[in-house]
Amino acid sequence: MFSTFVTVGQHSTVILWLLFLLNIFLLKQVRAFSSKMAAASPGQLAKYLQTTDAGFAEAAALIRSGKLVAFPTETVYGLGANAYDEDAVLSIFKAKGRPLTDPLIVHVSSYEESLEMVTLCPEGERVWAALGAAFWPGGLTLVGPARPALPPKVSAGTGWVGVRVPAHPVALRLLAACGRPVAAPSANRFGHVSPTRAAHVLQDLAGKELAVLDGDGEAPCEHGIESTVAKVDVAGGRRLVVYRQGAVPVAALRRALSAAGLGGYEIDVLQKYVPMPAGYHPPGGGGGGGDGEGEGGGVAVPGHS
Asked: I need a surface site. Which of 94, 109, 137, 190 has the fewest CB within 10 A?
């Protein structure tokens, strides 16, 4: 009888501890959700979307209808719009206060889709294929001659467009759902710290009409700095021009080219690093790298992420 009483007592203690831990977990979830909601002031036009089937469907529908949707990538949060909708693209510049002279990065769901954004000669396609195979999905943006169908505002009239396949599961699912290439710089006001959490987006873009697809619970923005941006410049000689160093090191680019039999390529590095402003914090804390969107030495660099 006594041993039975002890066993029951032990079970009761375990149950109480489990309930206690469950309460702590639920409290943290409520606080996290409340902080996101608090970031959206009553006058804010932002809409918060969860990564449910309904959330992805709504986010995709918004992009197809010309609206803005902020979403996570493995680098930072991006502010996305249908890359083929010129009015939607213009709304990105307006929401960020971004100069129209700064090109945007186009996010696509696959290597094959990336080829629909650019016009490459056979040699350029070899380089594109080698680097795409090595780093996509991932934090590398390749810049190539833009196809005429792409609105000039995406390339800022340069005739060149930056393209990448993100590695974040939320970004890839959104791209698949909307069935459109998505132009997306970092989801912050121009010159501000790049966001690595949904709450950062809501705070920095308060008062702007957009939706935020919250991927914080699904996967973090792993790098917290922007993608490396490299231009495939075959016409100017066998060279790769690195406008911005970020998630992919230059040494890794060299190795990938060498492995593909393209070791003779010269790599020109125009920006030594992604500038980190005061207030930078890694993904677990504050925002990511600074908004180096075209601010590096006057070079027109496609914007993050």
From this structure: 94
pLDDT per residue as tens digits for the range 51-91: 999 999 999 999 999 999 999 999 899 999 999 999 999 99
- Cross-sheet strand order for the sheet of 182-183: 47-50, 211-214, 69-72, 77-82, 182-183, 105-107, 160-164, 140-145, 228-233, 239-244, 266-269
Q: Which of these, 117, 105, 155, 127, lies nearest to 239 by C-alpha position?
A: 127
pLDDT tens track for 110-137: 999 999 999 999 999 999 999 999 999 9
Mark 113-129 as b/e (b = at least 16 C-beta within 10 Å). bbbebbebeeebbbbbe
Domain ranges of the chain: 41-269
Q: Does the CA dihedral 105-110-111-114 come out positive or negative? A: negative
Contact 192, 291 (CB under 8 A): yes
Strands 69-72 and 211-214: parallel
In this structure, which CATH number among 3.90.870.10, 3.10.310.10, 3.20.20.70, 2.30.42.10 belongs to the domain 41-269? 3.90.870.10
Q: Is the pTM of this model over 0.70?
A: yes
CA pair distance 155, 88, nearest whole angstrom:
14
